[in-house]
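Let us work through a complete example step by step.
Step 1: write down the sequence.
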Amino acid sequence: MEFIANTSPYSHIIDSRQFNEKFIYEIIAKTEEMKSNLHSYENDLNRKILATDFYQPSTRTRFSFEAAIIKLGGSVISTENAEQFSSVAKGETLEDSIRYISCLADFIVLRNRWNDSSFRAANVSRVPVLNGGAGTAQHPTQALLDVFTIYENFGRLTNLDIGVFNDLKNSRTVQSLVHLLSDFPGNRFYFCSIPSLMLPAELEEDLSKKGVQYLKTNDLREALSKSSVAYFTRLQAEYIKDEVERKRLMEEIAENENKYCKYAITEDTIKFMPENSILLHPLPRGPEIDPRVDLDPRAKYFEQAENGLYVRMAILEILNRRNRKKP
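Step 2: predict the structure and record it as tokens.
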């Protein structure tokens, strides 16, 4: 969308393709400051209001944004199921809801099942809109906390071997992260899944246009052994609209030796990962990560989730400096 290409991330955060290197490193630097000296920021957003307008379930995204504004001295107005518990249930459009919410709040975090929802919201909002997850398309603040966690462990975002596993077709976190990391030189990708959940054609085309090296494989051992970063995702069953296909995949998962579970991290398969690699997951997880690997030093997904608080604090702090509510 032209809007995305021309929109500064200091105005709205809609899509990870908005982020340039300067913005990403600014977020990383501010996040590091906040993690090490949180108390010095506790009144920076005094009297600011964050609205969390969520049409889909959330634990980490919603709670971390709400905790972020509170720790910065602000407050929250919220709906956890806007489809049912707002005037949308009476037929109100998303645009009209956002127009009103932006009269009350200084920031809006929106999660919605429509891929273009945050784009539509930003077009009518008087305040910054932050995409908290839009359909299968994008989850840009998740990508920022993912890259912060990678940077925290490696000290760089370049020349990395990144393995991406499981539902690559429907995962908005995969879309956001791959778009973002593919802009950094020397990064190589290994995409590992069953054919029906492999990378979308448009994302593959984008990688090819950029000249990014990538390999598609169904060999878990090969992909894990080459990955300095192993990024796993759950099956996004809620986005598989065809009932026959959904039933087939769910039956596949339910079987003990099904194809999907061959792409799981267990005490046996984690042995294929290099010693200095890291294992990430946006959470919530399903059978793709066995809880028995949680104590492995390469398992960083809980640290990754915790980083969501500090990254989202940094986002709010930076956007607050750049924005004032439009009259």
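Step 3: interpret the result. The chain has a mean pLDDT of 90.
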